[in-house]
Queue: 3 jobs
Job 1
Amino acid sequence: MFKASDVGKKMVITTRPDTPIYDAIRLMANRNLTALAVVDAELNLLGVLSEKNVLRLLYETVDRANQTVADYMSDQVSSLDVNASLIDLCDQLIESDSRMIPLTEDGKLAAVANRSDLIQGILRVKGQAI
């Protein structure tokens, strides 16, 4: 049986809550990321900074150069254990507004999985070549 960890990316680009917001946005833009996992020094998952979160900046009339990731991130984050099934991951991605689901192991960020990762996983599960 395939698990969420079988499709998740283990090389995760993360940010910290005290990172300046424009630095985080640059990272997202330069790496073509739809979201960043927000973690502390011990890799405890604190939240997610998504494209949707940063879109609010366009509507703000006050200069936000001193704002941080903590000011924009979502701290109500759905995550899954790395041993969750692909069905559980699929259900989570269908129900979530986010395109990315953090995968945790022993409460620490271990990987992330997004919709395109899951689509590739479907091909493997169904025995179809990529």
Note: The domain at 4-125 is CATH 3.10.580.10 (CBS-domain).
Job 2
Amino acid sequence: MTEPRRVQLPAPDDFEGWRDAARGLVKAGVLPEAVVWQVPGGVLDLFGEDLPTPPAPSFAVPRAFVDMARSAICHSDPERFALLYAMLWKLRSNRHAMEDRADPLLDRLQRLAKEVRRDAHKMHAFVRFREVEGQGGSRFVAFFEPDHHIVRNEAGFFVRRFANMRWSILTPELSIHWDGKTLSEGPGATRADAPAGDPLEAVWKTYYANIFNPARLKVGAMLKEMPKKYWRNMPETSLVQPLIAGARSRELEMIDRSMAKQGLENALGAERRLEPGSNVRATWEALLTEARGCTRCDLYKCGTQTVFGEGALDAAILFVGEQPGDQEDLAGRPFVGPAGQLFDAALEKAGIDRSTTYVTNAVKHFKFVQRGKKRIHSKPDAGEIEACRWWQESERALIKPAVTVALGATAARSLTGKTLTISRAREAPVTLRDGSECWITVHPSFLLRIPEEERRREERALFVRDLERIKARAAELAT
């Protein structure tokens, strides 16, 4: 068995070194599976044969491959060199291999390149310099944690953008420094090596708070574009959570000042039709204020904030879900994530205007398990449901809906005190302790989890059917 050839590159982002070595290997007819690529800090192959990499004759490849390789080589995937060499080997016999959109190898490399470009975009957008005083005058220092080996490649962007500044960008892998004339490298650093703040941050925070527009807030899109891992290095992100939490009240203030957001103005129509002098609004606001400080169970330690109900305070239909999800927890509003979007679409099909209803949850805090960067939903237990029942009962007592709808088993248990099977309970209403009707149906998140397309369509049609029956019953009780 022939021992593999080992190519030792001097840096993890060394495109030129990889290119020269790859050209020589291809010319020598060395198959991709016979090469081991290594960089400093990688795992050594003790049995590989060192391969000298003298300059090799040019090997013509499409420009698209070169562009892709320059980006993909900076990825943190340890297989990137081997993948690129395998693609280069394909191009040796087929110059059109880059046009094969069905090739899984090409697809993987293009995804690596795309992730590197996205990481570079994040670096351009989220590096925040802080001014420090030292020998020779002031200097601007930033700390950044890239996902990939992009720092050397992106140094030129910062040189061009901040040519007249003296600055340093510290990262765990390496640091780059610009003195106004020369760019140099240094060893990696930690966040503790970067300054904590400077007087300019107060000005920047004031500016950011004033340009924040709650009416255009999309928490999911924001987190996708600006993941939380970057927040610690950006002064304005200390304002994000309170701005999100207060987005609803600020949004309502903006609506009151202007009729530009007609859709949300209509959503508040039912509340504003309450009789003059009614204290329902004041009572609801008092409940909301008290709920924000709720410590009835330990879930208040987990979630970002209490997610209280919202909607018309004279609603004929009151919906109760299980608990807020990740996006609801960040936004401070119920049913705004993927399940909420499905819920809104089903309401529209059933002819129900959500603005005329009231929507809340059986449990007001987000219960989750942290898995890496993701917060995974965890079902609330009986004690947590019982501890939070007081809030939904207070909401129902204030609003007095003709029909209460339990979305899922957790909501059904909170409302009835019993464990019910949804498929059996959804056909007829249940009488609650106060004598009102409760209709039980599935939670929209259940519909999102169904893998089979045909069954998913059937279940969504049943959900819309349930909502249509609930709408008709609420109208009947109102007459």
Note: The longest helix spans residues 453-478.
Job 3
Amino acid sequence: MSDGADYGQNEDGNGGNVPIDMSSPNIAKPISMGHLRSTVIGNSIAEILKKNGYTPIKDNHLGDWGTQFGKLIVAYLKWGTKKTLRRIQLPIW
């Protein structure tokens, strides 16, 4: 109890970097409570690592663009036109 906020502090990590993948939501799907949960867990792990002398590198990678955007590209190439994109005000590639 006398250590207070310094309880458990050490330098075992020797400043080493540790990457932490936080929530990594799929941008083509709705965000869920699961994303919040994994962000909180990732942040907790980062705080424990800091107390042990590590340098946590937290990353919220916005990934999984593949399937949804692949389908959009194929649909554009098969059936789309620049005129249609202009009409619905989407950027033209």
Note: The chain is about 40% helix and 10% strand.
